[in-house]
Design a protein that fits this description.
The protein has about 120 residues and is of the alpha+beta class. The protein has one domain: Lipocalin (Beta Barrel). It is about 20% helix and about 50% strand. It has an eight-stranded antiparallel barrel with strand order 1-2-3-4-5-6-7-8. The termini are far apart.
Length: about 120
């Protein structure tokens, strides 16, 4: 019986370990060159949603805009949410994938149009 409880507690802790690793890997500043050389800070809010806020950009009007809000999907190991374009304020369905600790893919879809931004970690 003790063995069963021990195995069950280890199994239940695994999703939280995966989430903690993703949190540590995604949090921070990322350079999105295709978004006017914007540096975007990704962080988790008090409401457990992930946010992306532009810290620096070639277009000063974009600075301080929150352009992403999403939730971590444990089953598929990615973030799903809404990307709000900084210029036109259009809402686009977006997914964020971590390719490795230094690169991410930010994929936005609206109807039949898909746009992918590659983000590189800023040190």
């Amino acid at each position: 019986m003790i063995r069963l409880i021990l195995c069950l507690s280890i199994y239940l802790q695994q999703p939280s370990l995966l989430f903690a690793q993703t949190k540590a890997n995604l949090e921070g500043d990322w350079l999105l060159e295709d978004l006017d050389n914007s540096i975007v800070n990704f962080y988790i809010g008090n409401d457990d949603f992930w946010y992306g806020k532009i810290l620096k950009s070639d277009k000063p009007i974009y600075v301080h805009q929150v352009i992403y809000k999403g939730k971590y999907i444990l089953k598929n190991s990615h973030l799903e949410g809404i990307f709000t374009t900084p210029k036109s304020k259009m809402n686009i369905s977006a997914k964020i994938y971590l390719d490795n600790t230094q690169q991410m893919r930010f994929v936005g879809k609206k109807y039949f149009i898909t746009k992918t931004y590659i983000g590189k970690r800023v040190k």
